[in-house]
Write a structure and sequence with these properties.
alpha+beta, Thrombin, subunit H, 6-stranded antiparallel barrel, 42% strand
């Protein structure tokens, strides 16, 4: 699925995910995220249209509980999920703050350029 079909641009972000679908419970990570959905890096087989329940780990070690529908899949790579339910208003606000923080981090990285970003990661 290309960006032209997305309503919101996603941000590269590696966030721990615990998810459960028709085939069981799994641990994975996101490859990208936005307030409307995310991409989950996983080799586990899912079906487009499948509803999954999952938790996203926040930097403060809290979890956001989310339900989503599998929008597309890349076998042995992962799948895109559109959020259809967040457990609470506080969870929705936490997700929005997480996306804003990742947006800020990406903008700062772009401002520094790749060479300066690489040097700061080795300190």
């Amino acid at each position: 699925m290309g960006n032209e079909r997305r309503k919101q641009e996603r941000l590269q972000a590696y966030i721990e995910v615990l998810w459960e679908g028709a085939s069981g419970k799994y641990q994975a990570r996101t490859g990208d995220i936005h307030t409307g959905g995310c991409f989950i890096d996983s080799i586990v087989e899912v079906a487009v249209g499948e509803i999954i329940s999952f938790k996203l780990r926040l930097p403060n070690e809290n979890w956001i509980e989310v339900k989503g529908v599998v929008a597309y899949k890349y076998p042995n790579v992962g799948f895109g999920v559109r959020f259809v339910g967040i457990s609470s208003e506080a969870g929705r606000q936490s997700l929005e703050r997480l996306v804003k923080a990742e947006t800020y981090r990406a903008e700062k990285k772009d401002e520094r350029g790749p060479e300066e970003s690489d040097r700061s990661n080795t300190r």
